[in-house]
Amino acid sequence: MKFKYLIFLPLALFFFFSCQKNEVSKVTIKQNLLVDLSKLNNEIILFQKLTTNNSSEKEIIEQFKKSRLSYKKVEWAIEYFIPETARFMNGPALDEMELEENKSFEPHGFQVMEELIYPKYEVSSKEELNREIAIFLSNIKQVKSNFEVITISDDYVLDALRENIVRVIALGITGFDSPILQSSIPETAESLMAIPSCLETINSNSKIVKDLKKITLEAKKYCAENNNFNSFNRAIFITKYLNPISRKIKEFQTEEKIKTVNKNSPLKATITTLFDKDAFNVNAFVISDDYKFSTEKAILGEKLFYDKSLSKNNNRNCATCHHPEKAFTDGLKTNVSLTGINLARNTPTLTYASLQNAQFWDMRQLDLEKQSVDVIQNKDEMHGSMEEIHAKISQNEGYKKLFKKAFPKTLKPEPWQIQNALASYIRSLNALDSRFDEYMRGNENSLTAQEINGMNLFMGKAKCATCHFTPLFNGTVPPSYSKTEHEVIGTPNEISGKRLSLDVGRYLYNKMPQLVGAFKTPTVRNVAKTAPYMHNGVFTTLEEVVDFYNKGGGKGLGYEVDNQTLPFDELKLTKKEERDLVAFMKTLTDKKYQ
């Protein structure tokens, strides 16, 4: 019997220590986070001492940079697990708005501090800067308290790290969170180093982790050797480093049999890279399961889209204003009413409209179902009646068959299903098959040198990607892609630039001064087919659009736009850079429109 115990004892010890190892691994990630948060706290305290003691501008800025680098080590976890606090640690230096309640909250964090110390630090800003530092220290304390009590499982760690790659691509290397100081490139390196460190705690013997260490070190070296923000080659960095890192994370998940986090997010948790053809989920923006996309619904919706009986006089359908060959725009400066009068706004593209949570230029509707009713019942557009349309369709045998296929659980067509079918057709218009997409998926020959340079400008010096986020190139904010932004850019009323557009935009529905002249950020995808541009169609060419932004928008042109969210300093793009930028935007055209 004693011999048997000796045989089983090593096995028992093996299983005991294996379980202990798994528990320790999970604790280690948390412990590492808490240690790094303490280091961040110490860096901020040192920053506070320098500002309090009136140290030199150089010392203050250098310590600020060190503090940001320290934050980047823990950003992956703070942004994922405690996003409400993260917004006030490294969010945009713009008021946070709750439009439903017409309330706004002043911004806090690194980007606010950045504006106070750079490009020139004045001692007069000391009090305000120290107030921001105190708030930041309080937020660190709150974050530490949260991490001390929450459980961080392996599946959520992988999901957080995957999101962090997206953050680096769409917000990091674009300069979104360091718009003035432009310290994004060295910070990117710090963000990436957290990946192998975390995965090593899950399985330190994994070959994939060793491969990840090698790639991330190479990426860090590339950042160190190419640390100039304006000349940094984002095309190379994404395709040679970030996409391979993302693929390795997926491989590791498969190897370790770690489950995928189940969440209803526009960006699927199952992605291999951000540029997968099926990376985005249109169902993330539907209001319930009954409204989910299906091919049968889209087929029905397409028939409805071209049916003139949806309008009052049976003389206009959806395609009247959304021409398929023009990427579902109409080519007009502004739309034309049923009576031939020019309306106030340009017809936006329907392509990729489903990958945003706000419709119309003024964002007055939150989903495509409500958008369709708004247009159909608008007296200037279709002047139809949903009740009359429903009655017609209910008596049409052809429609009844299509409705039965699209909605098999219902006995007869219902009004909401008309809306849902139209919306489903629009949800089918996201091809994601442009030459840019091909390049990001490995076809290096799909873009020319000029177009690649244009891409680097778009995501760098020209600052386009800080509002038109990669890869949707609209205002839907990464890495969750669940909220769509508006911007105030100071659009002129006419090309000569003598006065501002009188259209108040979002302010019409939310009477907040920050929203005067605010409009949804549209997608740049298919932009070569959707001229003219802006909410009022004021610009007829992409060259005119680039020139407007190059000069700093409305405020840069000398207009009074106190609430302009677009940076109003000149971009100082050369004529060649402007041409390259336009060349890149033309690569975003879907195959069917090429």
TrEMBL record:
Q: Which GO terms describe its molecular function?
A: cytochrome-c peroxidase activity; electron transfer activity; heme binding; metal ion binding
Pfam families annotated for this entry? CCP_MauG (PF03150)
List locations, semicolon-separated: Cell envelope
User: What cellular component terms from Gene Ontology apply here?
Assistant: cell envelope
Cytochrome c domain location is 296-430, 449-589
Secretion signal span: 1-21
Primary location recorded for the protein, binned into one broad class: other
Q: Which InterPro entries match?
A: Cyt_c-like_dom, Cyt_c-like_dom_sf, Cytochrome_c_Peroxidase/MauG, Di-haem_cyt_c_peroxidsae, Imelysin_sf
Q: Which UniProt keywords apply?
A: Heme, Iron, Metal-binding, Oxidoreductase, Peroxidase, Signal
Please give the PANTHER family that the UniProt record associates with this protein: BLL6722 PROTEIN, CYTOCHROME C PEROXIDASE-RELATED
The entry's protein name is Cytochrome-c peroxidase
Recorded source organism is Flavobacterium hydrocarbonoxydans
